[in-house]
Predict the structure.
Amino acid sequence: MSRKPSVVAVVASGEDFEELSKLPPRSADLCELRIDLLQNCSADLDALIADLSIPKIVTVRDPREGGANQLSAETRLKLFSHWLPACDYIDIECRNLSEFSGLVREAEQRGKGIIFSFHDFEKTPEVGQMEELLETIEPKTNRIFKIATEVSTWQDVEKLIVFMRRNHKHNVAAMGMGSLGKLSRLVLAKLGSVLVYAALGRKVVAGQWEVAALRSILAEL
């Protein structure tokens, strides 16, 4: 039996804060604060984020996996430390597990959840490769493994389906990006993906639904 996925509204600009405030109640379960993108926002981020009552994921994305502004590891760590008290989860790329291990320990000591993520904007890896990544994450109730891959063919979507079916007992969030991204997100949400990300304004990646539309469609599945 599939789990009910949590809808994550992606906040990537100052305008997105306003869009988030306009959403009907319970449209989104969490929001993702893309700090790497929000760095150029002229608004008072501290005040805007403090006003949010919805649970928050803080993400300072590595530029090697789609992060903006070419932020160094040192800068990203400083930004994570600044926003750690305000968040419920942090998103750390699997490639940075070793380098950011101290941040992970501090976050978990503070009772924060951890999303360990992997993004491939060119292809969908083989199922075995995705499972090798999953195995690097020590299973805990407050940890989620997130994988987002380019899905340009149905065969790509099928790989994610097989991966999701074989690992549905874990806290896994799987989704596609690209031409079949929207379809993949619905299918994988139905198969037990614990998170499904959606746009408030401009889409951060191709294949995202708009938040209200996604919530409406998921209610019908």
Strands lie at 6-11, 30-34, 56-59, 89-93, 113-120, 143-150, 172-177, 195-199, 209-210. The CA atoms of residues 150 and 177 lie 5 Å apart.
